[in-house]
Design a protein that fits this description.
Radius of gyration: 21 Å
Helix content: 25-40%
Low-confidence stretches: none
Bound molecules: nicotinamide-adenine-dinucleotide
Oligomer: single chain
Distance between the termini: 40 Å
Mean pLDDT: 94
Order of helices and strands: EHEHEHEHEHEHEHHEEEEEEEEEHHE
CATH architecture of the largest domain: 2-Layer Sandwich
CATH class of the largest domain: Alpha Beta
């Protein structure tokens, strides 16, 4: 039994809140001490589901922070209320793990970082693929300098048919469509590997041909978010980033995720191959003028009793936050870094609306 339990609250008790609760309730150094949701009765029902019948439930974040002493919270509300809930918790002196995307507007993201700095509390954003074993290996290879200077990055993947339902397609609640759902993951994968150079300009187009077509989406008449977007982003240090993401298209993939450097390249082929492996990581370079194409063997850590050890990335994300709360920081996936991710989403949105390239301006934070 842990000596001191970390006191955790849950803000927003919808779908993803369960993916936070499952690991929390399994940790013996964590105690769930409160929850809130703006839908009356929802937070109560959520806590009861975990047999936490004596833990108090509230209908807004302000009552939760006023009435319950907490060390940390998971903000699991929909995108357009991330900023309000996160700032309320930080101002009450509580560390925050906020779900992705960080916010809707770039001003909200800046205000979140400012609140975290002022309160000297952690603001970490919930990108669980950061804990994926292969993602970490790619980051290490790029950090080692094996690619030389990385001058071009492109995101790949995309869904053939994968428009989600619920708040994901409600503009009032999600702000973005595909961009806020899976686009921000793609930006994080591409740019964290090169330690997030500052974005300078964006030229983008976002469309929704599938969501607006009743043949492909049942709620077509009210669909008003993006389901596809493509962008050319200039990054500090002469790096070009080509972003693309889709919820639906008539193709199996938008191509591979790729980092091109002056000495080598890495390509992620996001498709099952002949051996049914979901994605293959390739490394390309030249030795004595000869092209060398190598398959990157993940060499997963092997445990004699359990076989290959694959980490549950959701559990790792929650553990990462709890550990950071225990040590009073640093944030595992800092708001200061993800503000650049949000700035690109914001730039894509503005550029698409205006029909021309836009400068990325990040408000003071
Ligand atoms: N990391 C992941 O893999 C992952 C997966 C799915 C969703 N998400 C993210 O999680 C967030 C929530 O998604 P979801 O699918 O759980 O949505 P959801 O609509 O099921 O749940 C959101 C909940 O927040 C509540 N809420 C909204 N505003 C609130 C406020 N101001 N105060 C208190 N409660 C409030 C809503 O009533 C709702 O119950 C989104 O930002 C989404 O992008 C992340």
């Amino acid at each position: 039994m842990a000596d001191k339990k970390i006191r955790i609250g849950i803000v927003g008790t919808g779908g993803i809140a369960h993916a936070h609760m499952k690991p929390y309730v399994g940790f013996d150094d964590v105690e769930i001490v409160g929850a809130c949701d703006i839908v009356p009765g929802k937070a109560r029902a959520f806590l009861d589901k975990y047999d936490l019948n004596d833990v108090p439930a509230f209908e807004n974040v302000y009552d939760l922070v006023r009435n319950v002493k907490m060390d940390g919270v998971s903000v699991c509300t929909y995108n357009t209320t991330h900023a309000e809930c996160t700032i309320a918790c930080l101002e009450a002196g509580i560390h925050v793990l906020c779900e992705k995307p960080m916010s809707f507007t770039i001003q909200e993201a800046a205000d979140m970082v400012k609140a975290s700095r002022k309160a000297k509390k952690i603001l970490t954003i919930g990108f669980q693929p950061r804990y994926d074993y292969m993602r970490r290996k790619v980051d290490e290879i790029i950090d080692s300098g094996a690619l030389g200077k990385v001058y071009y990055i492109q995101s790949g993947g995309g869904r053939r048919r994968g428009i989600p339902a619920g708040t994901f397609v409600d503009k009032e609640k999600a702000g973005y469509g595909c961009l806020g759902d899976i686009g921000c993951y793609s930006i994080d994968e591409c740019l964290h590997a090169v330690r997030y150079p500052r974005p300078l300009t964006v030229s983008a187009i976002a469309t929704n041909y599938f969501g607006k077509n009743p043949k492909y989406w049942p709620g077509a008449e009210t669909f008003d978010v993006d389901d596809f977007s493509v962008a050319l982003v200039r990054l500090e240090g002469g790096v070009t980033y080509v972003f693309k993401q889709s919820w639906a298209m008539h193709a199996d993939s938008l191509g591979p995720t790729m980092w091109l450097g002056t000495e080598g390249a890495i390509k992620v082929i996001n498709k099952k191959d002949e051996l049914n492996r979901p994605s293959r990581y390739m490394y390309y370079t030249d030795v004595n003028g000869m092209h060398i194409d190598s398959f990157i063997d993940p060499s997963y850590p092997f445990n004699a009793y359990e076989g290959m050890v694959h980490k549950d990335v959701f559990a790792a994300k929650i553990r990462g936050f709890v550990d950071a709360v225990i040590t009073d920081g640093p944030a595992p996936i800092p708001g200061e870094e993800i503000i650049y991710n949000q700035a690109i989403c914001d730039g894509i949105y503005r550029s698409s609306l205006s029909g021309h390239e836009v400068e990325i301006v990040i408000p003071e934070y």
